Amino acid sequence: MPETGRWTLSPIVLIAGVAILVVTGLLLNRHDSRAAPLVLWDEGGIAPPALAGQAAATPAAKPPTLAPPIRARVGLQVGHWESDELPVELAILRTERGANAGGFAEVDINYAIAGRVAALLTARGITVDLLPATVPPGYTADAFIAIHSDYNNSPAMGGFKLARFRDSAIPARDDALIAAITTEYGAATGQGRDGYITRAMTGYYAFNGADFRHAIASQTPGVIIELGFLTNPADRALLTERQETVAAGLAGGIIRFLTGA
Ligand SMILES: [Zn+2]
């Protein structure tokens, strides 16, 4: 095919053309008093001329890039919630109401934080089960987190801690969940860690499918978190007045685990 006949628009020709159109438009507007109040410059694809003392129009900001939804199921157990409805096999825990300090009941703190975490996870596309003290038999999910708050006779005792089942069938997965939450929760709250892990935590009933029907499946990664001490003034202020921060840290840790970040 011969090249003759092809015509290329040079930038100079384009600029000259636009300038002519702009000047013509200004002249027309000046001389036609019946014209509409102002020429709509955004029509016709011609950029408006910058007026003196006015910054040139900036291009519209790009919409934020939305993170893809996370296809996962997470169980959040509210420690002590509806404990009076625990089954016979766990009847001994029906009167375990949790900590009380400074006018706050642990179950209320656990519930409020769990609800906020659930909202944050749901917003990322994650399916969340808000579970009471009674866990459905063989509960299966991509992660299970039992949410509790701690207490101690000494108000000096503070910090958060996490533990998994001592007889876990998937200790490496559980430990990965612990590590992810520890990183994000610690960074968000600025809280220190309490390293004293009790036997009650590592033998938590909801992990123990060998002894109880109402426990998670052995292949469900599960951890228990003590968010902080209700008996410690700084921890109590965090858990009651900065719940959005606490929830963001916990949700961030769960997402970190699920996404392998
Ligand atoms: Zn508790």
From TrEMBL:
EC annotation from Swiss-Prot or TrEMBL: 3.5.1.28
Boundaries of every MurNAc-LAA domain copy: 133-255
InterPro entries found in the cross-reference section: MurNAc-LAA_cat (IPR002508), N-acetylmuramoyl_amidase_3 (IPR050695)
Gene Ontology cellular-component annotations: outer membrane-bounded periplasmic space
CDD domains with a match to the protein in the record: MurNAc-LAA
Xref: Pfam families: Amidase_3
Entry keywords, A to Z: Hydrolase, Membrane, Transmembrane, Transmembrane helix
Recorded catalytic activity of this chain's protein: Hydrolyzes the link between N-acetylmuramoyl residues and L-amino acid residues in certain cell-wall glycopeptides
SUPFAM superfamilies membership: Zn-dependent exopeptidases
GO molecular function per UniProt: N-acetylmuramoyl-L-alanine amidase activity
Any one of the GO BP annotations: peptidoglycan catabolic process
Membrane-spanning intervals of the chain: 6-28
PANTHER family in the record: N-ACETYLMURAMOYL-L-ALANINE AMIDASE (PTHR30404), N-ACETYLMURAMOYL-L-ALANINE AMIDASE AMIC (PTHR30404:SF0)
Name the UniProt record assigns to this protein: N-acetylmuramoyl-L-alanine amidase
